[in-house]
Amino acid sequence: MTAPHVSLPDPTHSSHLPPLDPTQSPVTGWTRAHWEAMADRLLDGLLPYASRELAQYRLPGRASHSGPWSDGLEGYARSFLLAAFRIAGSGGQVSPALIERYAAGLAAGTDPHGADRWPPIADRSQPMVEAASIAIALHETRPWIWDKLDDAVRQRVAAWLGGFVGADVNDSNWRLFQVITEEFLASVGAPHSRAEIDGGLARIEDWYRGDGWYTDGDGRKFDYYNAWALHLYPILWARIAGPRADPALTAVHRSRLREFLGVHQYFFGSDGAPVHQGRSLTYRYATAAPLWAGALADATPLPPGRTRRLASGALRHFAERGVPDERGLLSLGWYRPFLPVTQRYSGPASPYWASKAFLGLLVPAEHPVWTAPEEPGPVDTEDAYLALPAPGWLLHSTAADGIVRLVNHGSDRLPPPPAEAEDSPHYTKFAYSGAAAPETPAGGPATGTGTVTGFDNHIALLTADGTAVSRRDRIHPLGAEGRCAASWHRAVLPGSGEEHRIETTSVVHGPWEVRVHRVEGPPGAVVREGGWALADDSGPLVESTGPGWALARRQGDGLTSAVVALHGWGTPESDEEDCLPGGAVARARGANAYGEYSATPCLRLPAHPGRSHLLVTLVVLSADPVRPCDPGALRTRAGVRVNQEGAVVIRFPDGLEEEVPGAAGSG
């Protein structure tokens, strides 16, 4: 398949952007000029919220748990990072007012007696995060800002950043904030600790799991922090350290980034949407940062035209959906403001970590990553599946609709035992995608169905009245290879204290995922499984149900979510259609980042038999315009047979067969 040519005009903020260039960029139409224009739009949008002395940006919105003082610093630091990429990328050929604006903020923010002073760097405090952005920005703009500051201001900046030396740092990606900040101090001859720099770099070695994957601290914490922190900061550290950096170590970092980017390219749908998984999703297109880092450090396996296609696709994806908003601001949300994708540490300026996506402006304009014609991404050209054993994930994508789906059998963001498990919809679901988001409800019954929201991509034990629902506890991976990934977890019914093992194997092919569940449970417990949650702002979704299946469909683009019972959902005697309970659709409002109205198709086993019970479900997320999803036909064409050893042989709707062993593992 050749790269599709652009045929539509920019529908959002077109007055702020140059015309599309379908010759240079036949997929997205976007060029370096679009990136520069978007950076300017974001920087201009912040000005009305600057403090008098330009050291803080107090944006509208909910304050973080660190409070407005820290939030104001965050607004300065994260936008300074964006300004730095814009200034350095143009060789200083920007409006002098932009340079003066951030130089003035440095002078005012580090004045310990000034009205605009910054909060100090203290143990495990948010200013540690922001100090790293300021240090990177100062390094990249050194000829235009640092070298021209008054000596007294330079000394104050170094003293403020020096609060890192000897401080206690969170044992996560935060260790790299210390590395970055103290390396900058070393570069300007200020006090620093080489032992702390080396210790931070050594600590991330403990978290490397192979194949380009770091966990963000001890445990199984796999998410985008692997991309926009644990790979990114070592590359930026090497730029600051220069000859002080150990060449062998920088070679390791570059090799790992190269390996990671070979996989990361599969995380973007053909419309540019990154897979919606993990925390800090309000950083949005920061997911593109490692793509540019690979080009900047000559550490990428991707052709230059593909790097730009993927990064520009992500930036354009959000621009077409109202990001930034009409004020030029990044809100706390995904497309529209939506607080459930944020965390307690998220303040009004937190989304400006998206500035990392503009790292590509540091790559010279004449570099092939900017001059080569765009090339299609892997999702644009053919169907693919990819097992990722380190995080316990399985990716599968389809070219017909450009959708990427991530099957999760390994990331729960929990520290090692005996830490208690927490249920997070951005980590504990069976699957994630860029085309759909998990339900993130406040709790309570969904409208019209008598069910409870939050069943999407989840299997649960329920009490007979449906008032108590089990969660997916700590995920115990059992492997990921080929088309398969598996794990088990303990399901605990609230109030009962009883634990019941649920072991699940996912097998993928095209748009289909078949889940083979071996479910332990008390006699009479209800079992419910949900498919993908779909959402839309225009109104309620189309719903359809039948014996052993349920469907939700978005009217505008035909995106469809369906679940189909293949085995075990009927009476003990039969899975024939007349013995199957009807499917259901759980509806909600205000519970999904992708739209006001959402719906999740579900299956229901009325009474667990009280022993380990085999359930097999076909789960579909598709917008294929040629092969529309028809659950009734899928149920006829797909099938399952169980042999005497308990192995499950799956027949996909197109006839492909895969076998799942009688037991994926034990634990």
Observed structural traits:
disordered N terminus; alpha+beta; eight-stranded antiparallel beta sheet; single chain; about 25% helix; 22 strands; about 675 residues; five-stranded antiparallel beta sheet; about 20% strand
Rg from Cα: 25 Å
Strand arrangement in the largest pleated sheet: 8-9-10-11-19-16-15-14
Give the strand tally.
22
**Uncertain stretches:** 1-13, 443-453
How would you describe this structure to a colleague?
The structure is a single chain. By secondary structure, this protein is an alpha+beta fold. The protein contains 15 helices and 22 strands. The strands form five sheets. It has an eight-stranded antiparallel β-sheet, with helices on one face. Strands 7, 12, 13, 17 and 18 form a five-stranded antiparallel β-sheet that branches. It is globular. The relative contact order is 0.09.
In brief:
With 667 residues, the chain is α+β, with helices and mostly antiparallel strands. The chain has helices spanning 32-46, 68-89, 96-109, 127-140, 151-161, 174-187, 194-206, 225-230, 232-241, 247-264, 289-296, 304-319, 368-371, 378-381, 631-637, and strands at residues 208-210, 213-214, 384-388, 393-398, 403-408, 431-433, 458-462, 476-481, 484-492, 499-509, 512-519, 526-530, 534-536, 542-546, 549-553, 560-567, 584-592, 595-605, 613-622, 639-642, 648-651, 657-660.
